[in-house]
Specification:
Elements (H helix, E strand, L loop, with lengths): L5 E2 L5 E2 L45 E4 L19 H23 L5 E4 L5 H9 L3 E3 L4 H10 L4
Parallel strand pairs: 3-4, 4-5
Antiparallel strand pairs: 1-2
Helix pairs in contact: 1-2
């Protein structure tokens, strides 16, 4: 109860119990439960094994979009006569994604939480840059994390 106590402007204590996230884990007993005081736990792991397991002084980016290879929009028709041109189009799609990720990382981000997906290309790029990525984070958790970081 002390962990969720908030003192309002009027000096009265309030207890917003809805702010507490309870994670249930199979196979553990009640005596092995833990309280995380200065943080927030989510029931998701890293997107890939090569990503860091622990990040000190985390700079977190909360994204509400996919970090997958950009595809040409629906209705776009490309006539290709040379196989090299097809490879150019594919490379261009990958470059768009790379630029998108690079813009995010240029802000000093070392943890990316996205409500969308991460494809293999994006994960490899994040692994090379030693960035932790978590995909398909529920929007409810994203909002709570944003509020905890005072980003909302």
């Amino acid at each position: 109860i002390k962990s969720v106590r908030v003192t309002g402007f009027d000096g009265k204590d309030k207890y917003p119990v809805g702010q507490v996230n309870v994670l249930k884990s199979h196979g553990k007993g009640l005596t092995e439960s833990r309280l995380i005081k200065n943080g927030y736990a989510i029931a998701l792991g890293r997107a890939a094994q090569g990503m860091p397991t622990r990040v000190e002084n985390a700079r977190i980016a909360l994204l509400d979009f996919d970090l997958r290879k950009a595809r040409m929009g629906l209705g776009v028709k490309i006539q290709i006569t040379d196989p090299a041109e097809l490879e150019k189009v594919r490379q261009n799609e990958m470059d768009i994604t790379k630029v998108r990720i690079e813009k995010i990382l240029s802000k000093g981000v070392n943890v990316i939480l996205t409500s969308g997906g991460l494809d293999d290309f994006s994960m490899k790029y994040l692994i090379d840059r030693k960035v932790m990525g978590v995909r398909r984070v529920p929007k409810k958790d994203m909002k709570r994390i944003a509020k905890a970081m005072t980003a909302a």
